[in-house]
Amino acid sequence: MATLRQFEYLVTVVDTGSFTRAAELLHVTQPALSHQVRALEKAVGGPLLERLPRGVRLTPMGRAVLPHARAALADAGRLRAAARQAAGLAGGELELATVYSVSLGILPPVLRAWRAAHPGVRIRLREFAHNEELRAAMAAGQADVAVGTPPGEWEGPIRELGVEEFVLVLPSGEETADRVPLADLAERDWVHYAPGNGLADLLDAACAEAGFRPRAAVRTEQTAAAPLLAAAGLGPALVPANIVPAGFDGLVRRPEPPVRRPLVAYTRTRPDALTAAFVEILSRRACLLPEHVTGLLSRDRAS
Fold this sequence. Notes:
Blueprint lengths: L3 H13 L2 H8 L3 H15 L4 E4 L2 E4 L1 H28 L5 E7 H6 L1 H11 L4 E7 L2 H9 L5 E4 L9 E13 L8 E3 L7 E5 L4 H12 L5 E6 L4 H7 L5 E4 L10 E6 L3 E7 L6 H13 L5 H12 L1
Parallel strand pairs: 3-4, 3-5, 7-11, 8-9
Antiparallel strand pairs: 1-2, 5-12, 6-10, 6-11, 6-12
C-alpha cells in the first residue's frame, strides 16, 4: 500500500531532480529516501524513476503516477488545514520551556519542522539554567510544555524522547584512545560551567564517580562556548553531543564510563490539541546524537 510519505518523497525527487537534494530538503538520509521510493515502486508494480549519471527521469509508469501523487498530497494538505482550523492549530501561541543546552542542541530542527507545519502558531520560549528551575516554572504554570530531564514526583503526562549522550572535547592533536577514562583527566584544569547551571552539577557528579573533583580553568555561562573553549586549549569539556557544531575542529571522544541523561517532554495535565501536536513533532525530530558528531568520532578513530 502506497503512503503519503512515499508520494512526498517521489514528488520531491522529481521536483529537485536529485536524490541527494531531495534528501537534504526532506531532512532524511539518502539511503532511507531510496528505500521508500523502491517500496513505492514495489507497491505500484514497476519502476517510476530512471537513475541517470546526472539526475533522474520519470519512466512511463512514473509519468502516469506523478499527477495522482501530487493530487493525494494536495488533498492531504487541505485535510490537515481543515483539521488545524477546527482544532485551533492554524493560529494561537504555544509556551515552551526548556534548559539552555536543549534549546541549543535539540530544539532548532524541531522548531523548523513545527514552523513549516504550523506557520500561524507563535512560539514563546522560556529558558532555564537548571532542570529544577524548569520543573518549578512548569509547576507554576509558566509554560504549556517543558522539555528536559524527567521531573521528580510529577503527576502530569510525561513523553520519553530518548537518552542524550555526552562527549569529551579536547584540542585537536592530542593523543587519546577512542574512549577516555575520566580518571585520566583528574589532573587537568577543565572548561567548567557557571554555578547554577545544571551542566555544572552533571560534570561534578561524573567526575566524583571517577574519584576526583574537577578544577576549573574557566567557567562559562554559555553552553555553546564550552566546546569552543576546550578546542582552544583551555581544558577538557564535557558537553551534550548535540551541541557540537558542524565543521567542529576539536577532538571529540566518548568518556569512560559513559555519561548520559534521559530527556522527556511533560505537561501538567492532558495536553490540548496544539500542545499534543508539538510533542508529536518533538518526538519525531529530536536528534540526540547528530550524524556529524558520529562522523567526528569515526574520523578521529581513523586518524
